Recover the amino acids of this structure.
């Protein structure tokens, strides 16, 4: 525990220097990170994607993957920069950190603001509901048909999935994260909170009043849609993104990626060959 706290303290000292600035011709951030020996990761405190654990250590599927990939790229240390999920893209582009390592979904709107590595996982949705699921909510269509009180997280893709199903956006309760969503369901302020299958399953484990529904694919344009989560980079930093992708492909090929992600609840069903280009709609 003390070693973990000491390591974070050392990283904090390293983080006092200015975040590496982007260069030209694909950006020079990778060179700067190698020279500094540390990369700053934007995380959103969301289990299992990226968070600080009870012993003060940075962990989660994205930070653990970042540790492996950046070490291979010649950057030995990672430093967490916690923020709210909705602040990740603005924080990245204002150089508060070097890369978003928060399991962020790749979608067309975000692709206009940042560039993504290829997804390191794919994901279905799930609901947090009261024990026994008294309203029988298993899809966004159910939420609309049964006029359920609906909540999801700040900046979550689930906002648009609910709107696509016919739910009025102005009626959606937006909360900071899945813990706030669980609290809202347990308190009866809403009937359902929507999030990723892994997130909802994890957060309800110790709840006596709520449960997670079975995973399902939301409908987009009338067709089932599967999301993919990936690391995000500033648009000028194509060289770093491409180097990251090369290492990620090798981890997928060898099966090492699954080994890294498995402790956080990911299995073979979450492994994917989806590309950022596909999910960006390009």
């Amino acid at each position: 525990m003390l070693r973990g706290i000491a390591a974070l303290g050392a990283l904090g000292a390293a983080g006092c220097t200015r975040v590496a600035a982007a260069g030209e011709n694909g950006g020079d951030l990778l060179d700067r990170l190698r020279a500094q020996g540390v990369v700053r990761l934007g995380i959103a405190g969301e289990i299992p994607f990226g968070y600080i654990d009870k012993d003060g250590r940075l962990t989660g599927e994205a930070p653990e993957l970042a540790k492996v990939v950046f070490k291979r790229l010649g950057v030995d240390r990672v430093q967490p920069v916690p923020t709210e999920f909705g602040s990740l893209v603005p924080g990245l582009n204002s150089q508060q950190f070097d890369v978003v390592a928060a399991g962020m979904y790749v979608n067309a709107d975000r692709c206009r603001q940042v560039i993504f590595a290829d997804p390191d996982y794919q994901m279905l949705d799930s609901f947090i509901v009261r024990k026994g699921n008294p309203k029988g909510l298993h899809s966004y269509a159910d939420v609309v048909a049964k006029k359920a009180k609906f909540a999801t997280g700040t900046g979550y893709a689930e906002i648009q999935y609910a709107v696509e199903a016919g739910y009025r956006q102005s009626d959606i309760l937006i909360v900071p994260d899945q813990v706030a969503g669980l609290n809202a369901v347990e308190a009866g302020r809403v009937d359902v909170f929507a999030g990723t299958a892994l997130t909802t399953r994890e957060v309800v484990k110790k709840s006596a009043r709520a449960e997670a529904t079975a995973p399902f694919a939301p409908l987009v344009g009338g067709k089932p849609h599967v999301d993919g989560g990936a690391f995000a980079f500033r648009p000028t930093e194509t060289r770093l993104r491409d180097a990251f992708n090369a290492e990620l492909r090798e981890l997928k090929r060898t099966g090492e990626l699954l080994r890294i992600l498995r402790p956080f609840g990911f299995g073979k069903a979450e492994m994917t060959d989806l590309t950022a280009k596909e999910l960006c709609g390009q």
About this structure: The chain has a mean pLDDT of 91. The first helix runs from residue 2 to 14. The longest strand covers residues 99-105.
